[in-house]
DNA-binding protein DDB_G0278111
Amino acid sequence: MSSEKEIQQQLSQMQGQGFDPEAQQRQEAQRQEANERRQGILIQILTPDARERLSRITIVKPEKSRQIEDLIIRAAQTGQLTERVDDAKLISLLEQLSEKTKKTTITMKRRTIEDDD
């Protein structure tokens, strides 16, 4: 009986500290629902070839894929897209994004001086 009381006390303490399993479940359900809506929009906008390319990009670089998805969805919502995005259009969007996010690398080559001492 004392173990049940301890469990109840621990649960009430965790809920008092902001740990609410029901709230976490609701948040997870909301995230999943938003992701499903997002995928539904992308299915309507992208051709099958473009969706396949984007899914391969997601495997390698999820953050880049997310940026492209956001860009495409925003363009569709603002009416900038008049037709479905095909593979060629997706490639051009990827190139534009790559140009914006190119990283500059600097390599320093130091000369070594040989002393004949």
Summary: The mean pLDDT is 83.
